[in-house]
Amino acid sequence: MKRSAPGQIVKLGLLQTHAATVPRSNVARTLGLVERAAQQGAQIICTQELFRSQYFCQSEDHENFKLAETIPGPTTDAFQKLARKHKVVVIASLFEKRAAGVYHNTAVIIDADGSLLGSYRKMHIPDDPLFYEKFYFTPGDLGFRTWATRYGKIGVLICWDQWYPEAARLTAMQGAEILFYPTAIGWHPSEKKAQGEKQHGAWELIQRSHAVANGCYVASVNRIGHEVLSSVGGDGIEFWGQSFVAGTSGEILAKAGADREEILVVPVDLAQVDQTRTHWPFLRDRRIDAYNGLTKRLID
Amino acid sequence: MKRSAPGQIVKLGLLQTHAATVPRSNVARTLGLVERAAQQGAQIICTQELFRSQYFCQSEDHENFKLAETIPGPTTDAFQKLARKHKVVVIASLFEKRAAGVYHNTAVIIDADGSLLGSYRKMHIPDDPLFYEKFYFTPGDLGFRTWATRYGKIGVLICWDQWYPEAARLTAMQGAEILFYPTAIGWHPSEKKAQGEKQHGAWELIQRSHAVANGCYVASVNRIGHEVLSSVGGDGIEFWGQSFVAGTSGEILAKAGADREEILVVPVDLAQVDQTRTHWPFLRDRRIDAYNGLTKRLID
Q1: For the whole model, what pTM was predicted?
Q2: Among residues B11, B122, B153, B255, which one is catalytic?
Q3: Which B residues, 163 through 202, put their C-beta within 8 Å of a C-beta on chain A?
Q4: A179 three-state secondary structure
Q5: pLDDT in tens, B37-87
Q6: Angle, helices B74-86/B23-39, rounded to nearest 10 degrees
Q7: How buried is residue B184: exposed, middle or buried, by Cβ count under 10 Å (0-12/13-18/19+)?
Q8: Contact at CB, A205 and B209, closer than 8 angstroms
């Protein structure tokens, strides 16, 4: 399998960090990480999910709605300014207040000239012990999308979306060469010993599989830190970090550790998407005449 | 995550072997492997893809259509007899002659009383150098299916199908607790050094991901042996074996070697399907209102 096209190298920047109790400090630190990533040559930079706060979905508390912002709003503005300054694309995950009583788990996509290209609103919303997202987030109504940024066509999906091959497929079918997954996932400390390796393994595996199935890159950005919220108590969540980039055959190209702040700057060759899809022509042979059942809940 | 239900253990039997030049000897050897697997306690037994012959799709040769059989036919009959004798479910992969000019790559599903439950006709047909299947096999017209066998609800997909999350999903949505993939895949010897590890890695990964996405078991049965067909010449294909069973979180439960005949007898607990899907409730949250695009070729 020789290279059929000249390389088209783009550098991705994944920002893996912890979240402190004060949103202002998280925004400041994350803006600082964007600057450092840009200085290291990153061209498309992605934050972890809901980086502005600790993971408040550990409980259902109306007070937490105060953490939301409009889009555009002050945090979007700050990232737009930085994107323009450094000529970088930024994907920033925000808690969006759309209207009274309508909130979303949203990512903004900012182009390298600072313009707001659009938003992705998380489509699949989890609800599990300590991950009570259905209380906060109205399921996205913008569908699955792709944006032609200055440095490449990208798709953005968020955390729980990563378990759904449908989401990755629908995004890739619109031309995305890289799928970004801002994420906040970790271990329940009481389960870690018995289930931790299996849980993390499944998480990494399913995302790598989206790269395989679609012949595209996948970049997953997760937080670190053991967050026990004072208003909730208990064991909290130990976020497992390990942000990574997978190549077009699902191979791991770069991976961060589980417990320290890291900026992953990862060069990827967009010409490889065409190369891989030509040699593994899965998209050619989809049986679209037989996929109608996918819009059903079950076939029973 | 404690076990919520009493175990429901079923033993799977995966038959990994080579193919000799004479079909009769392959059938005899495979029938012998079924007997041995049954004696070792296997209850649902699956052959590799097209076990009856060497992998003739290395060229487009009209002579090879003579390898096909009707279903039912002599090979189906032989397996039905053995299934009845040993009270085992058998999945046998056959080259089906359906009518003059209409051939399929088909698997028959035989219940433990020897009755023919039905057939699955390979839906996704590859066409790659040395894998010229589109010449031989009409794409399946029976869709994705599930069978309630004596020992569990199973789905059967074949080789190239394994790259399609849609196929796994549609089968699991019909209740399959185990997805079987009879397979014939290997390395082009000239590519093995540079690409071999990545190719095999992607193959194993995508199938394990179907277990994750659907919270079910996956059993993949591949052939071994370096087949250089006298009518074709060249380097042939080095089939990579490594048949495996993945658990409901995608973890590898058992795996065969790359170059020797093996019977994998693997106990799995069907109660784990319910357990896993309750703790990782992906099926609950599918956005079926937003999946219409999956029946398109591309969204462009």
Answers
A1: 0.97
A2: B122
A3: 163-167, 169-170, 173-175, 191, 194-195, 198-199, 201-202
A4: strand
A5: 999 999 999 999 999 999 999 999 999 999 999 999 999 999 999 999 999
A6: 10
A7: buried
A8: yes
Amino acid code (one letter) for B91 = I
Contacts of A199 in chain B (CB under 8 A): 249
Q: For position A7, what pLDDT does the model report? A: 73
B234-276 pLDDT, tens per residue? Answer: 999 999 999 999 999 999 999 999 999 999 999 999 999 999 9
* Set A46, A57, A159, A216: catalytic member: A159
Query: B143 and A295: CB-CB below 8 Å?
Result: no
Burial class (CB in 10 A: 0-12, 13-18, 19+), B24: exposed
User: Residue A17: left (phi > 0), alpha (psi -120 to 50), or beta?
Assistant: beta
Would residue A122 show up in a list of annotated catalytic residues for this protein?
yes
* Residue in this structure with the two tokens 């913008």, named with its chain if needed: A142
Where do we find the tokens 């299996």? Answer: A198
Q: Strand, coil or helix: what is B197? A: helix
Q: Is the ipTM reported for this complex over the cut 0.90? A: yes
Sheet holding B178-182, edge to edge: B146-149, B152-156, B178-182, B217-221, B244-246, B252-255
Write down all domains in chain A, each with its CATH number in brackets. 9-285 (3.60.110.10)
